[in-house]
Sequence to fold (440 residues):
Amino acid sequence: MSDKQCDNLIDYFNGQLSEQEEAQFENHLASCESCREELAELRELTESLPYLSEPVEPDSGMKNRVLSSVFEEEEKEEGYDNVIPIEEKKEKEKPALSRTRKRNWAVWGLAAALAASLVGNAAFLNQWPGTSTTQPEEEVVIDNLRQDLTLQNPEGGEAKGQASMVANDGESQLVVQAEQLAPLSGNEAYQVWLLEEGDPVRAGTFVTNEQGSGAVTYPMDELKDGNWDTLAITKEPGPDSETPQGEIVLAAEI
Amino acid sequence: MSKPDEELYRRLLHKDKDALEQLYDKYEKLVFSFSYKMTNNHGLSEEVVQDVFMKLWTQKGTYDESKGKFSSWLLTIVRNAAIDLMRKKKDTPYELDERDALQTNEPSIEEMYESKEEATAVRQSMKVLKEDQQKVIRLFYFDAKSHREIAEQLDVPLGTVKGRIRMALKHLQTEMTERGRGGDTT
Fold:
């Protein structure tokens, strides 16, 4: 939206932005065609560069070390397939959500891979993995999916979506993904809201790609503790609506 | 001949260990060497390799065939993983820079990689570029420096950095295209 953000392209490509700056830049990307084009061009123009690397011999036995630890990780992960309450992790988490969680942000332990892939998909602008998806595995593994909501249009229709709470070392993120949404025009944007007894609070803004898919992650720490009962997505005339102006396109009860 | 990457990747999604191993064998050398080019450190490079194959195995469904070659996607992950690790371990002492030594007249270096023609074309094209354009590419792509650092090291205004990177990369691409057309890939 601002020229200033456009100056962050190099630092974005080179993973030099803080998480927050990176999220801001990704938001910017969604609305700045020239940055999207420049980024795509950079990726294309650098495609062959890795072949400039002079061949270097790894230390012996690397294959064994790498593959066995990859497959070991898998065994560990399978443990998460069962539904495990993550109450034992509670003391490590910030109290921000504990009240709501007691209500109904039901506690599901899910495969770390699922949480990771949700976070990955959130960088939907980047069909190529952005730096945001490069968190090392040990972090990914302690992500916990705490709630998984299926979003639907209350009036019916093709559009659908999913909302998840992902907790990672005390940081809670709301991850929302939606698809088959109606195309946006001009300055329009989709806005996520959390509602407590009809009282909405903004919880992320996104625009859709050509296929009508979009996603956003929102740090829950920015929200005051609330007894959210509904999550809703509306189509707004602009990305800055303080209260919902448009119709609800997707919603779910929490 | 090994199976096409895309097929191996699809098998990966079904937790086929053999498919991962085949991809590993095919790309170990390239992934490791590229990681080393970026980190200049053996230990870190192995960590990058580990990270990358862990991601392949666990973060399923990220690669989209319609978006391009598997190898390009993989190398993007490698680069990002290397950047990430370098940031986390800023204090890791650099090894003695072996790059220059390795660079000299290694016979048929391209034989080491699967994509021989691409490797040959990009290496020959790089040599045609003037020193300062090579430096731009190195600072930007392999060292993954910040916008500001690149400007400082090149001693140019911040506002011209993007243009210089683009120009150097475009020049390289033009050279590569010409080489491709010329058919001289020796």
